[in-house]
Write a structure and sequence with these properties.
Elements (H helix, E strand, L loop, with lengths): L1 H27 L2 H15 L7 H12 L14 H14 L3 H6 L4 H20 L4 H9 L8 H13 L9 H18 L4 H9 L5
Helix pairs in contact: 1-2, 1-9, 2-3, 2-4, 2-9, 4-6, 4-9, 6-9
């Protein structure tokens, strides 16, 4: 019964995350901060506190400028990917002291981010950047700094149903992050296990 409960909790939390992703992108109009807020609040609804409200507020400030492919330039990392990766890395718990004690500990975060969200982006959208995700989703790249293209971007998203919990990139990235974090809590991987999986080529 405990195992089934974990399945229910994960599914419920992922559904909540998708719904919040849509809600927050309409509130904050930014992929990075909307994704992170959806992850934090969905986890919090299940009693999992990734960060305190005070820390969340500071992280929100840092993420705003990373939306739209970094500074709305459309050529850097997808903001949803950036925020989802940040959440997973936070949950990996490799702080300055732990990183200093053994620099190899960084591989725990590398693995969790790669498996939890980055490789999924590459498979689903064909890349990690805002430009690549746009092409993967819409078949074309739009410079979000140009008003006409910015308008076209949101019109394309609406026409393709991307502003729904099931199809929104923000909702998808946030749900992947929540799934990864809950899996990590239930089945944490230590450094030796990750090294073994790396040597066997399981996460390339």
């Amino acid at each position: 019964m405990k195992y089934m409960g974990n399945i229910d909790k994960k599914g419920r939390c992922m559904r909540k995350t998708r719904e919040l992703g849509i809600k927050y992108v309409k509130t904050y109009v930014g992929c990075a901060q909307s994704t992170f807020a959806a992850v934090v609040d969905a986890l919090r609804s299940e009693g999992v506190n990734l960060v305190t409200p005070e820390v969340e507020e500071e992280i929100h400030k840092g993420l705003v400028g990373l939306s739209g492919g970094v500074g709305n330039l459309s050529v850097g990392n997808c903001g949803a990917l950036t925020a989802a990766s940040l959440a997973i890395s936070l949950a990996s718990n490799i702080g300055r002291m732990k990183n200093k004690q053994d620099k190899e500990n960084r591989w725990i975060s590398y693995f969790n981010v790669a498996e939890g969200v980055a490789k999924k982006f590459m498979r689903k959208y064909g890349g990690l950047t805002c430009r690549e995700v746009q092409i993967g989703r819409f078949g074309k790249y739009l410079d979000l700094r140009i008003p006409e293209m910015n308008k076209e971007f949101f019109e394309n998203a609406e026409k393709r149903g991307c502003q729904t919990p099931e199809k929104c990139t923000i909702s998808q990235a946030a749900a992947w992050a929540v799934e990864a974090i809950l899996d990590m809590r239930e089945h944490p991987r230590d450094l030796e296990r990750i090294k073994t999986e790396y040597e066997r080529g399981h996460w390339r």
